[in-house]
UniProtKB/TrEMBL annotation:
This is Cytochrome P450 2J2-like. Keywords: Heme, Iron, Membrane, Metal-binding, Monooxygenase, Oxidoreductase. It comes from the Eukaryota. The lineage of its organism: Eukaryota, Metazoa, Chordata, Craniata, Vertebrata. Heme binds at C268. PROSITE patterns: CYTOCHROME_P450 (PS00086). GO terms for molecular function: heme binding; iron ion binding; oxidoreductase activity, acting on paired donors, with incorporation or reduction of molecular oxygen, reduced flavin or flavoprotein as one donor, and incorporation of one atom of oxygen. It holds the Pfam family p450. GO terms for biological process: organic acid metabolic process; xenobiotic metabolic process. Belongs to the cytochrome P450 family. Gene3D superfamilies: Cytochrome P450 (1.10.630.10). The keyword Iron applies. One of its GO terms (cellular component) is membrane.
């Protein structure tokens, strides 16, 4: 929960202009709701609902919690928007909501521009949820890989000690001097494969792709798992191997098949922010702590599959370095 809250605070500052304390029970409950709802959305009950909504609407089951879950998050956002409306100073926007409110005012005569309160609510929801869940889940994978592969963790820490030391915090400027750590973070994203099926999209017009015709309104899934584990692209696709991102001299190398953020027009708009967060959180944690399995517990890479592919809850020991 601490990592989830810390990560969420980054996007909360940008969107709501505020962070939430680790002791804020209401916010902790909201994070749990987001977590559970995203899990349920990828489950079998949600699948049944999508196939037969006219029947499933009346059938009891966990799929009903998906609706109440999002209602809870939307209510939270609506309250924040109302608060912003009360004290928004158009000459000095504080955050995403203020900027959007200014655009609503600017475009009030043109309804086609799309700047209205409903869109503000759903754009805020997208940024808040996407910015919270994905980066947290990637960090859970990162720490899980570190307790499964302590020798890799030791190499990251050795690089950290040489480049950053222990008296200051790591910064993005250190990133280029830390190829091994960068390779480990990239390999975490590849093997963590947190959005294997990508986000569902729909063809807006008849389209030709690779000789196939995709009629208008067809739902399209550009699966990311197929590239992240492509046997023609990766030397050891099913093994956690930071060398995938290192050349002969140990320098960082980019790979064409590294597409956890997808690509094209709908590529993740949070890619750059997420990359910064992953580097800063991961390095700050490994600078201060060594992570290991609790005594008597066998390390495992068990996962659960909802809308995201995430590790099953696990315990770990954090020993101060
Ligand atoms: C490790 C972290 C992240 C991963 C792996 C990730 C991955 C993705 C992927 C695969 C998509 C779908 C792209 C497509 O449809 O082709 C997406 C969409 C999106 N992401 Fe991220 N994301 C991450 C972090 C973030 C962050 C921090 C934000 C917040 C700024 C964010 C905001 C969004 C939004 C708003 C969309 C929907 C964009 C649209 O509908 O056009 N993501 N992300």
């Amino acid at each position: 929960m601490l990592i989830n809250n810390a990560v969420s605070n980054v996007i909360c500052c940008l969107v709501f202009g505020d962070r939430f304390e680790y002791s804020d029970d209401q916010f902790q409950t909201l994070l749990k709701t987001i977590n559970e709802t995203i899990y349920l959305e990828g489950g079998v009950w949600a699948g049944k609902y999508n196939m037969m909504p006219w029947v499933m609407r009346w059938v009891p089951g966990p799929h009903r919690r998906i609706f109440s879950g999002w209602e809870e998050v939307i209510s939270f956002i609506k309250i924040r928007i109302q608060e912003h409306k009360k004290d928004n100073d158009t000459s000095s926007p504080r955050d995403f909501i203020d900027c959007f409110l200014n655009e609503i005012e600017k475009w009030e005569d043109d309804t086609r521009a799309g700047f209205n309160l409903e869109n503000l609510c759903f754009c805020t929801l997208d940024l808040f949820v996407a910015g919270t869940e994905t980066t947290s889940t990637t960090l859970y994978w990162g720490l899980l890989f570190m307790i499964n592969y302590p020798e890799i963790q030791a190499k990251v820490q050795a690089e950290m000690d040489a480049v950053v030391g222990s008296s200051r915090q790591p910064s993005m400027e250190d990133s280029d001097s830390m190829p091994y750590t960068n390779a480990v973070i990239h390999e975490t994203q590849r093997m963590g494969n947190i959005i294997p099926l990508n986000v569902f999209r729909m063809a807006t017009k008849d389209t030709e792709v690779g000789g196939y015709t995709i009629p208008k309104n067809t739902i399209v899934l550009g699966t990311l798992q197929s590239v992240l584990f492509d046997e023609s692209q990766w030397e050891t696709p099913h093994t956690f191997n930071p060398a995938h991102f290192l050349d002969q001299e140990g320098k960082f190398r980019k790979r064409d098949a590294f597409l956890p953020f997808s690509l094209g027009k709908r590529v993740c708009p949070g890619e750059q922010l997420a990359k910064m967060e992953l580097f800063l959180f991961f390095t700050s944690l490994l600078q201060r702590f060594t992570f290991s399995c609790p005594p008597g517990v066998e390390p495992s890479l068990d996962f659960k599959m909802g809308s995201t592919h995430s590790p099953k809850p696990y315990q770990l020991c954090a020993t101060l370095r």
